Amino acid sequence: MANDPVILITGGSRGIGRATALLAAAAGYRVCINYHQNQAAAGELVREIQAAGGTAIAVRADVSKEEDVRNLFGSIDQTFGPLTALVNNAGILEKQARLDEMDAERLQRVFATNVTGSFLCAREAVRRMSTKNGGTGGAIVNVSSGAAKHGAPNEYIDYAASKGAIDSMTIGLAKEVAAEGIRVNAVRPGLIYTDIHASGGEPGRVDRLSQLVPMQRGGQPEEVARTILWLLSDEASYVTGTLVDVTGGR
What is the pLDDT of residues 63-100, one digit of tens each? Predict the structure, then answer.
């Protein structure tokens, strides 16, 4: 329906993003699924949402590129109208390595997507949502990581550091726009069963490390997605600048 809330989920075609898109659609959001490369997965997700009676589109954009981000938000403006919610979920990591094995190109790739991309998308969302800019408010949830706390030594401290930047941005931006009708929070997932671990070179990483989790298991994407949807909802109306760990106690 034309009056239903509108959500953008970056990196929405797989993992936590996909689970969030399905839950958001079931909750009545009109969903924009952003993807960078996996057009087939994004298209399949759109069809799944539509088959269940929801409304969804998929828009390709590299969130690390400013022009792509502008075009992404422009597509939502034209198709759905005013944005209600943003989930900054797009993120990458590279092969497990120590710092003394990393080059500048790797660092630039990780920070471009994970940090710059989140900043650019949050900027465009604020420009649309802020009552200062004529908007009616909204909510942003940034997807950080438990790695921001423990640092991911010997694996990917660059990824962990990029998520530490997201934590700081969440707190600062929340204070900037709190009086303008926008809430900004973050989730910090722990060991979750998604294919991002394969990107780091170890598809079975969650199983290997699950004994380090007090709950003795890895988490499911849906468990993170439910937290994201709660933070976006009116049930969290007095929650902003908050980092919610979804880590099984780790």
Answer: 999 999 999 999 999 999 999 999 999 999 999 999 99
Ranges of residues in the chain with a pLDDT under 50 are: none
Considering the entire predicted model, what is its pTM? 0.96
Q: What is the pLDDT of residue 211?
A: 87
DSSP 174-241: HHHHGGGTEEEEEEEE-SB-STHHHHTT-TTHHHHHGGGSTTSSPBPHHHHHHHHHHHHSGGGTT--S
Residue with tokens 């936590």: 16
SS3 99: helix
Tokens, residue 193: 């069963």
3-state secondary structure of 33: strand
Residue count of the chain: 250
Catalytic-residue membership of 35: no
- Burial label for 23, CB within 10 Å (0-12, 13-18, 19+), is middle
Domains of the chain, earliest start first: 6-245 (3.40.50.720)
| Given the residues 29, 159, 193, 238, the one annotated as active site | 159
